[in-house]
Amino acid sequence: MAFDYDLFVIGAGSGGVRAARVAAGHGAKVAVAEEYRVGGTCVIRGCVPKKLLVYGSHFAEDLSDARRFGWMVPDCDFDWKVLRDNVLAEVARIESVYEDTLGNNKVEIITERAGVTGPQEIHLAGGRTVTARIILIATGATPDVPDVPGAEHGITSNEVFHLERLPKRAVICGGGYIANEFAGIFHELGVEVTQVIRSDKLLRGWEPALSDRLLAIATQKGVQFRFNTMPQRIDKRADGTIVLHCAGGKTIETDLLLWAVGRLPNSEGLGLEALGLHMKPNGAIPVDEASHTDLPWLHSVGDVTDRLQLTPIAIREGHALADTLFGGNPWVVDHALVPSAVFSHPPLASVGMTERQARDTLGTVKIFTTDFRPMKAVLAGRNERSLYKLVVDASTDVVVGAHMIGPDAPEILQALAIAVKAGLTKAQIDQTVALHPTMSEELVLMR
Questions:
Q1: What is the mean pLDDT of the chain?
Q2: What is the pLDDT of residues 382-440, one digit of tens each?
Q3: Exposed (0-12), middle (13-18) or buried (19+): which is 115, by Cβ within 10 Å?
Q4: Active-site position among 58, 278, 345, 436
Q5: What is the 3-state secondary structure (H, E, C) of 275-310?
Q6: Which of 306, 214, 263, 350 is nearest to 45 (CA)?
Q7: Is the pTM value of this prediction over 0.90?
Q8: Cα separation, 214 vs 218, whole angstroms
Q9: Burial tier of 69 (Cβ tally within 10 Å: 0-12, 13-18, 19+)
Q10: What is the rounded CA–CA span in Å between residue 353 and residue 359?
Q11: Residue 131 forms beta bridges with which residues?
Q12: Is a pLDDT exceeding 80 seen at residue 1?
């Protein structure tokens, strides 16, 4: 049977773009359908613009600290629109780079919504139907919005980058990484921030020592927290004030409500159920370790599979699939010991087992911690303390987990993640000479 394409990718995010580019490099005829913008969540309305906002917001502390270092910094005004527009311009630049990359690899970009209407058959919103030997679903995930009356009065991370002005008050519903990152951004930019969290814990699944430290620092800075709380109804008054009605008759008033309660696989409306594919309860596409579904011609990578919702994982999954199907080089992505970070104020970074996970899995463990004030914070007069923690298998001396909160924690942990992935021992880390004076030297001085 002759097909219009060897590979048809639905979704031009990180995983889809990588799969398309690599497959085309192997000689396949490839098309990508994208209904919104090339680049996906990470580039357009996720990690890239968010990290730029983190950088921008951190100048509030940097400018204040500079006075302690002898710089006669005057009181500075902040212009949200300048930061917003420059961030959006950088996003547009990166989007064009992605488009150029696909074009240079002779990948056809189709700017329409696409769905699967039959075996190896794709229907495009413009009315055209095409066929492909292999179809790849890489549609990512979308913000979850609770099913409560008035939920539409809030926004999600999709819209937050386009605010016309900063609010005086903001309520962020959620305790995960997105919620804590935007809480830090808004607070540093002068917004009164309240986090509303349905459970009694920040960052569930993270090393508790880190989440507890973040809570303490954020509280000291002025972020307010409402634990074990979930809005039951949302009203919006004529003056624009948003009112959250919670259990026990409690209310919270705000100017902006941001939903950050999780992300759901973006599989709705693709026609997959009609093909006999048994979707997971949350809409995730079930795949094996090689990103294959039960249908031999249908595959899926990235957040829509809900394995690990991380951009580097989606990229690797797309690359592995393209090499396997079109390059004669089959390989699968190792989802173990994947480092992750929360770009809060201050940031967190982690790889491997938490202390609890290690005790439950290994039995006997050794824990090493260091709790210190960075040199810069001391001179700046800040009381924020950094915390580093190593989890070690007592029977082998292998470091099975590393966790840290403090300035540049994600930058430092990237190198340490190599050591954990390689299975290095605590003794080998101890044998490494310290780089002095640095924060990272604490990692080789823990005894």
A1: 96
A2: 999 999 999 999 999 999 999 999 999 999 999 999 999 999 999 999 999 999 999 99
A3: middle
A4: 436
A5: HCCCCCCCCCCCCCCCCECCCCCEEECHHHHCCCCC
A6: 263
A7: yes
A8: 6
A9: exposed
A10: 9
A11: 121
A12: no
